[in-house]
Amino acid sequence: MSGFLATVCAEARERVARAAATVPLDALIDQASRVPAPASLSEALQRPGVGVIAEVKRASPSRGPLADIPDAPALAAAYVHGGAVAVSVLTEPAHFRGSIDDLRAVTAAVNAPVLRKDFVVDRYQIWEAREAGAAAVLLIVAALEQDDLAELVADADGAGLSALLEVHSEVEVTRAVGAYEAAGVTGRPLLGVNARDLTTLQVDPDRFAVLRPVLPEGAVLVAESGVRDAGDVERLGALGVDAVLVGESVATAGNPRGAVEALVAAGERAAVRS
């Protein structure tokens, strides 16, 4: 691991240390145990058609500031009213201008499952997500050693959260499947294929197609990054994705609800054609 990914993971560990110094893990787990169980992201993604996970995204390291988003809950509600099966909330502050407060506000505002998207390197972040009402966390395979990855998958399951494992290569697909097996988590694994290389930050729109032959049967498959319009959804639907995770194109749209509706309609068309 090097470059951008190494930097953000080191920053994430520093954030965890600061947070734990204020609220120790045991106290956080106790707080989280009082929060009602969230809806299941895994179940939401197993509906017919190509589901849309719409993201609250203010900035990116490759593009800089994208959208002001003064009211994250209102944006998330527009996504859900547009037919999004789930909402993703970026909580990384330095490069994406997100926060755990955004996550907490969004989960309180919508009845759809909410994914915490961040650079999760410690079980503390899983319990932060659970306390904030999230249904799932993103785990980036490239950011974690294998034993740590398996332990975090188990920790997420123990907290009642789904773990969406993000991959970009064939080796990472193998590691993701192995982590689920080592963690002893039952049910269909959730695999997200990120078209963006987190080392170079470049997007390869064909990354899902390249990895499709090695993605395990029975996994719930999510295409991440580079999904901009209905044509992308239909193309990915033909390859067998269960959902697409869309950030920039909906977060910056003049009519976010309408933008999501167009993607949802494309997902329904893809289901009919398959």
Structure description:
The structure is a single chain. This protein is of the alpha/beta class and 274 residues long. The protein has one domain: Aldolase class I (TIM Barrel), CATH 3.20.20. The chain contains 13 helices and ten strands. The strands form two sheets. The chain has an eight-stranded parallel barrel, surrounded by seven helices. A two-stranded antiparallel sheet has the order 2-3. The longest helix is centred in the N-terminal third of the chain and has 20 residues.
Question: Any chance you could write out the topology, listing elements then pairs?
Answer:
Elements: H1 3-22, H2 25-32, H3 41-44, E1 51-56, E2 59-60, E3 64-65, H4 72-81, E4 86-90, H5 93-96, H6 100-109, E5 114-117, H7 123-131, E6 136-140, H8 146-158, E7 162-167, H9 170-183, E8 190-194, H10 207-211, E9 220-224, H11 230-238, E10 243-246, H12 248-251, H13 256-273
Parallel strand pairs: 1-4, 1-10, 4-5, 5-6, 6-7, 7-8, 8-9, 9-10
Antiparallel strand pairs: 2-3
Structural class from helices and strands?
Answer: alpha/beta
The percentage of residues in β strands lies in 15-25%
Q: In the residues, how many domains can be counted?
A: 1
Helix content: 40-55%
What is the gyration radius calculated from CA atoms? 17 Å
**Shape summary:** globular
Spans of at least 5 consecutive residues whose pLDDT stays below 50 are: none
Number of strands: 10
Order of helices and strands: HHHEEEHEHHEHEHEHEHEHEHH
Would you tell me which CATH topology applies?
TIM Barrel
CATH homology superfamily: Aldolase class I
Question: Strand arrangement, largest sheet?
Answer: 1-4-5-6-7-8-9-10
Write the CATH architecture name. Answer: Alpha-Beta Barrel
Give the N-to-C terminal Cα separation.
Answer: 38 Å
Specify the number of helices: 13
| Overall pLDDT metric | 95
Q: How would you sum up the major sheet?
A: 8 strands, parallel, barrel
Please write the CATH class name.
Answer: Alpha Beta
